[in-house]
From TrEMBL:
Single GO molecular function: hydrolase activity, acting on carbon-nitrogen (but not peptide) bonds, in linear amides
Keywords, ordered alphabetically: Zinc
GO annotation (BP), single: glycoside metabolic process
SUPFAM superfamilies the UniProt entry points to: LmbE-like
InterPro entries for this protein: GlcNAc_PI_deacetylase-related, LmbE-like_dom_sf
Identification of the protein by name: N-acetylglucosaminyl deacetylase, LmbE family
Alphabetized PANTHER family for the sequence: LMBE FAMILY PROTEIN, N-ACETYLGLUCOSAMINYL-PHOSPHATIDYLINOSITOL DE-N-ACETYLASE-RELATED
Domain of life: Bacteria
Coiled-coil features, chain-numbered ranges: none
Source species: Blastococcus aurantiacus
Amino acid sequence: MTAPLPPGPADHVERVLCVLAHPDDVDFGSAGTVATWTAAGTEVTYCIVTDGDAGGFDETPRDRMGPLRREEQRAAAAEVGVSDVHFLGHPDGRLEPTLDLRRDISRVIRQVRPQRVLTSSPERFWERIGASHPDHMTVGESTLRAVYPDARNPFAFPELLADEGLEAWTVPEVWLGASPRPDHAVDVTDVVDRKFAALHRHVTQVGHQPEGQLEQFVTAWMRETAQRFGLGEGRLAEAFHVVHTA
């Protein structure tokens, strides 16, 4: 007989792995949540699948954009207490759910051995089409495939064990950002300054915006989320669909 699923996410975990497509994805959707985790003593690791070399709003040469965005992401991570950042180097804007991508994400899962993985929802969000960048959905789907069955199956990608000594690892919990069916909100009101400090580190992506526009847009978005989840007047929140996978 199958045991019942827990009613909600774990109150605290030791290690979290965030797998996102581009530098800045984690900061727009989840940096406040990450700041609450690191403040509580959770070790958070980022795995960024591309270098974001197809992004930007100026004439920066394409061969410089990727390295710039890596450094921006490292600086943004530091603002919310994250020092371990992996880059997989897959092509920005051309991601597909390949076996190579699944293997690469499975490798990082086995290295980090997280109790929770945060990634993008693989479902298209029709009301917020910008959240459903094809790379985002591809990374979400590939990460879920890596969580189940790949990372926990010692016979999947056997080279990870035979050649690299990476034992199988089961992730009990996945948090999906930008989901059309969120069921859990994190109050980030008290750490929102750290979220904006992280976002402003992505100069190549937000430096062109008029002063205050970024805060205005993101705050309105987080305020609406908090109201939708009944967190009270003046609160700010980030929302996720929590999936139990163990």
